[in-house]
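TASK: fixed-backbone design
INPUT:
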């Protein structure tokens, strides 16, 4: 998310390492320009008031937001939202909050929500790190999804990758004991880094011996299917927060 087309904006700051301040705050995204289609514009105008939550300090009450008590999953960088909508449809008894700064992606997911008649997704168009810190209660998440984050291929840019020890330490504070963190990437060096970072975090335990089988709830994207036919790999890691 380089990045799958369906998932264009899951990852770290756009500043260069050379220009970054010494204590650059963690960011979950890169802002990219993109044109809004007419359907996305319409969806944003008509459905945004219901499904897009404003970013504001203060913990969310999921029962009030969704009108029910249900497990809550947080997704960082849903791109164009197709996979998110399919997962939400498959896991109808789970509620989802997705963070995405890319406005065309927000509009696209709203279209999917409308077309599939979903009511278990809400969107926050803001940096996921700040949403976690200021809107998500500690130990409240049943799971976190981070699919195809920007791999920052060049070695000198690796420090921009989202899955690093300081971020993971912050993230798991919001996952309840027994909850899970599911990451996926199509870039093997990043997959190895994910596995190493998550294995080193004492608050997590691997659900597999190394990489995990793709969970049934995560659909294959068109790009992923095409890559698999060409022999390209995709790696999933699924860790659980220790009790």
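OUTPUT:
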């Amino acid at each position: 998310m380089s990045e799958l087309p369906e998932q264009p904006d899951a990852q770290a700051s756009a500043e260069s390492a050379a220009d970054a301040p010494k204590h650059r705050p963690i960011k979950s995204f890169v802002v990219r320009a993109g044109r809004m289609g007419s359907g996305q514009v319409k969806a944003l105008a008509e459905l945004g008031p219901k499904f897009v939550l404003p970013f504001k300090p203060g913990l969310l009450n999921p029962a009030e937001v969704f009108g029910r008590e249900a497990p809550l999953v947080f997704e960082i960088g849903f791109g164009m939202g197709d996979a998110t909508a399919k997962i939400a449809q498959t896991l109808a008894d789970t509620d989802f909050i997705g963070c995405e700064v890319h406005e065309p992606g927000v509009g696209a997911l709203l279209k999917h929500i409308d077309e599939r008649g979903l009511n278990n997704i809400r969107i926050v168009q803001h940096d996921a790190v700040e949403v976690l810190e200021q809107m998500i209660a500690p130990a409240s998440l049943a799971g976190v999804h981070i699919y195809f984050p920007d791999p920052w291929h060049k070695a000198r840019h690796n420090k921009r990758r989202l899955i690093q020890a300081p971020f993971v330490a912050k993230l798991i504070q919001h996952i309840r004991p027994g909850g899970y963190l599911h990451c996926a990437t199509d870039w093997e060096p990043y997959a190895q880094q994910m596995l190493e970072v998550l294995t080193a975090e004492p608050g997590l335990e691997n659900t597999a011996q190394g990489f995990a089988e793709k969970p049934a709830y995560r659909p294959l994207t068109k790009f992923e299917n095409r890559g698999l036919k060409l022999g390209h790999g995709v790696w999933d890691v699924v860790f659980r927060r220790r009790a």
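COMMENT: Confidence is low (pLDDT under 50) at residues 1-23, 28-33.
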